[in-house]
Each structure stands twice: as C-alpha cells, then as structure tokens.
Known about the structure:
A hairpin with a 6-residue loop joins strand 4 and strand 5 (136-140). Helices cover 34% and strands 22% of the residues. The protein is built from 19 helices and 32 strands. By secondary structure, it is of the alpha+beta class. Among the domains are: 20-143, Topoisomerase II, domain 5 (Alpha-Beta Complex); 214-287, Gyrase A, domain 2; 469-539, no CATH class; 541-559 and 571-662, no CATH class. Residues 25-440 form the Topo IIA-type catalytic domain. InterPro entries: Topo_IIA-like_dom_sf, Topo_IIA_A/C_ab, Topo_IIA_A_a_sf, Topo_IIA_dom_A, Type_II_DNA_Topoisomerases. Residues 635-662 are annotated as: Disordered. One of its GO terms (biological process) is DNA topological change.
Amino acid sequence: MAYVQKLFDSNFMEYASYVxxxxxxxxxxxxxxxVQRRILHSLFEMDDGKFHKVANVVGHCMKYHPHGDASIYSxxxxxxxxxxxxxxxxxxxxxxxxxxxxxxRYIECRLLPLAKKVLYFPEITDYDDSYDGRNRExxxxxxxxxxxxIQGTEGIAVGMSTRILxxxxxxxxxxxxxxxxxxxxxxxxDFPTGGIIDVADYQDGMGKVLVRxxxxxxxxxxxxxxxxxxxxxxxxxxxxxxxxxxxxxxKIGSISDYTAENVEIEIKLARGVHTQEVxxxxxxxxxxxxxxxxxxxxxxxxxxxxxxxxxxxEFHAGFIIKVLKAELKIEEGRLRDKIHAxxxxxxxxxxxxxxxxxxxxxxxxxxxxxxxxLEPFQDEIRREVTDEDVERLLKIPIRRISLYDIEKARRExxxxxxxxxxxxxxxxxxTGYALGFLDxxxxxxxxxxPRLSTIKSFEKVDVRxxxxxxxxxxxxxxxxxxxxxxxxGKVMFQVSPYDRVLxxxxxxxxxxxxxxxxxxxxxxxxxxxxxxxxxLAKLVFTVLYVDKATRYAYIKRxxxxxxxxxxxxxxxxxDALGIKLTTQKEKVGVQVSYKPKxxxxxxxxxxxxxxxxxxxxxxxxVRLAAKEVRSAxxxxxxxxxxxxxxxxSKKAASKKRTGSKD
Length: 662
C-alpha cells in the first residue's frame, strides 16, 4: 500500500507539473502557452510573405505539438482573433456573436510584421528537441514587449488557474517606457468588445473589475446595446435578457439582434414602460453587467507565481534591456566581420595582391603570397588575417575583380563603420535605445490599437433594490403556510424574490428568512414584516407574556436589528406562555385583568406603552404587577380633557414602570 501511495503521489506531481508548465499557464517572458509558441514557430518557418492555409499550418505544427490537431486549430483561431501577430483571411468566427470559425481548410493566415519585430531573433533564442526528437523548437521567444498583458490569457491547471485581462497596446508600451525611466504608471484593462469598465477594485491585476454593456438610451421606448461586456456574446446577452423577462424581473416587448461587424441589439420595451425604469434591472438581472475576477498567475523560472501587473511591467523593463543588448552584441559582431571582409577585399583588389599568386604552383605558396601581400596593411585590417580569410579572397571571381567599383566599396565601408559606431553607442545607452525602440513601435503600430473600453466609476446595482415587488405574499392561518406561491389566505404585502421577511410565531420564536414560495411557519403566526434594516430600526415590538409558575404578567419592548439569516431566536423565556404582540406605539395601552382574591380592590388596570423603556432584544421583560393574571390585551387609549389617558390608573400615572426583570 505504501508503494502504491508513493507511486500515485509521484505520478500525480509529474502530471500536475506538466499541465501547469507545458499546457495551461503562460511564461512571463514571452506570454505564450506552449501550443501558441509552437504555432508562431511554425509560421516563422513557413513565412514567405504569402497566406498559408490554416490546415497546412496545423499540419506543420504537429511536428512540435504532442497532442491532437484540434487543439492547435482552436488555439490558432483564438491567437489570430487577438489581431496582434497573425493576419487573417476568411471566416475566423465572430467575437461579438460567438459564431465559430470555418474549417481549417477554408481559412488562411500569415504573420504580421510586428511579430518579426518583437519576437523573432533565432540567434538569441534557446531551442530544445521536440517531443519525438526529430526537430528543434523554441523554449522561449525573446519578446521585447509584455505580450501576456497585451493579449491577456486564461488557463486552468491542476489546483490553480490564471486570468489576465487584455490591456491596450499603446498603454502597455507607455507603462514599459515609464518603468525604464524609473517612473510608475497604472495600467487598466482594455477589451476588444469595448464596453464600460469600473476598475475601482482592480488591485493591480489581483482583484476584479465590473464591466457593463454600452447602452443607447436616447429613445424612451427602446434600448440599443452598442458594445458588449467582455466575456459575453450577443447570443448569451439576449438569452439572459429573455430569461429575466420570463421570470418577471423586467418588462420588454421584444428583442432583436442585428449584430454583424458592429454590435447592435435592439430591446423594445413593453407598453407603459420607459427606458430609465428598466436600466437598473438590466444591469442587475442580465449580462449587461458582469463581474470579472482576475488572477495574475504566470511561470517564472519554471514555477507558477502570482505577480501583480506592475511587477510584470518591471520584469519586462529589465528583460527588454537584456534582449536588446544581446541583439546589439550579435549585430556588432556581424558588422565587425563584414568590415573585416570588405577591408581585405578592397586591399586585395586595389593593391593587386592577386597578381602575386600568378607564378605560384602550390597551395601553400599561394596562401603565403597573399598573407605576405596583406602584411603592410595590417593597421587598416585591425584583425589577424586567417587562412579562412585568404580562402574567401581566392574565391572572388575574375568578373567581380574587373568590375570592382572602388568608390562604391569605400562608401559601403563608411556606412558599415557608421553603423558600428551607432551600435556601440546604443550599447553604452541601452535604456535610451530601448525607449527609442518602443517609440518607433508606438509610431508604426499605435494607430491600429486605439482604446476600445471606457473607464468609468459606477455602483453595482443591488438586485434587491432593482427587483420588482409584484409577488403577493400570502399567509393562510388555517394551514399555517406562508409564501407567494399559495393561492389561499390573506395578502400581507407585495414582495420580490430577493426580499427577506421577519416571522414571529405564537410561541415567541422568530427568524429572518428569504421570501418563501411555500413554507409552513405556524398556525399562530403573530407578525410578518419585511426585514429591511431601515424598516426594522424604526419598529418597536411590544410583547406580553405570563410566567407559568407565578402567573404574573410581563411586558417587553425591543427592536430586532441584528440577526443571522435562517437562524432561530426567541423573544420570551422558556417558562412563559400566552404571548401577545403589537408594533403600534401611540395611544396604545396594556389592559390587565387580575384573578379575584380576598381583600383585592383593583381587579383591572391599564398601563400606557410609553411608560416602559425600549431595551435590547436579549433583555428580560418588566413585571406589570405582583398579581395573578386572568387576561391581558392591548387596547386603544382615549385622551381626556386634562390631556391624560382616560384608562390610565393612578398608579400608572404616578411614575414610569421599571419593575423587575424576569
């Protein structure tokens, strides 16, 4: 058993690590998942400037991807619809309606110039064997921009997930420039479907955002959806509106979808209903408003790490310096090699060193003659002349020597020298060079990526406030059932499905519950009120009860302001009975009849409610009198000409009752 457990743990960890690193979570350096990286690598290899059938790209990518072609096709469609690195031709689906793309054999794609500018540089790219060992694939592209922030990403792995929202291309590059300068800039999402965003709780990519559809409300009898919240389509939004209408949460006449290249969903309102009356309901009960939680998880050094958006920008500020330095170093080496080769060629031809080999009959003699001829010009050459250099000179054809243009060669050398100086200057000021590179990207491609989403602060609509109170809440004392789904009994008030009610039963127990469709509460329910905080804060509950042992009457006045939903509470002690309750406050008294006994003169008294202090719900009641009670009830008080209650006893009028606690 221990062996099996160990085997299971080991295999599970290997599987989990594979899914996290090689399938679901993107790498922070280039922002791609492995399948996306393999697709772009295939397009780089196939690139000839023309469109390629997606089916051919998928087939080529199968050399690198150890899974099925369906996953490659779907990943390519998603990547192409980002409109960042892949140019599309044909039907790649519709992000507004959710319509799928055509089959891979009918659509075509090719790389956009931006992909080559920011991703492609094989000399500094690390490669590894593909899954079958027959090919080499890139481990990470040397990306010069934070692709993971521009494109956004979603992925579910074993025990973890990632969701990074897309951001505006220009804003991301501006934030990267600010980081290079040591400044800070706050980034907010930008969605391809547009919409309105509330970023108050974005928390640097670790919180959530509220997203709303952009609604045209200029017509009082019609609402037109012009932009969709991110993550929804016209079909899902229409379905949510129809579902809310069926449940009676909003009233519409009809809904039509005219979405094609732009979003246009027309909602015609019912007779007697106007635009402003249904806006809150649309936001509360439909996909016109959604909440998107964000979880910025990426792979750093082969480990999944939660990283705020600002830290990703800081990472790429250092990474772009590293990549550009490596590129400049390689270019510097190439320029030095070119200058060396062109200098040798110029001296070889201008000084007619090739004449020295005419009388040589051996290979070694030829090589020595050329070396000897180049020795006087060592200061110009600047580098040791190798046998490989001589071999290259000896391969120059006679035609080229005869047509050699000295002035053209000198100009070319001057251009190479100038470029070498420029490269070395850039190496000394890598930050300035990086800023210039980003400025050129913004200038060349920024106009293609305008901000589509509007950032605006708005309050999330409370569904309880937006819901229509059009359900009759009934109570049937004969059956003891309460709810909006019963047809018998008395209508207490109108409610919505999101309301809560406070129910007080005859035995003194009470609880706050969601409005039920049909629920047995008690055949002797005393009170049922809407459990709204403002309403409960104003209500004073006056309770009459009798102690079982002494038969003395007690009164308790309290407010019920705090509660836990569906939890049971009690207003009176366990050894009490005969509860009566009222929520009236003015001109109400308690009329108590006592059990007759010898020498008892007063058999009935009335106590005004205002004589008793309102206490906490957990406090005990106040004893009315040390006499056995025969009956007690609430009565209306009449006011005499002297301003005092006509039913008020002398004892009750003399002082306020404080009594003893139960």
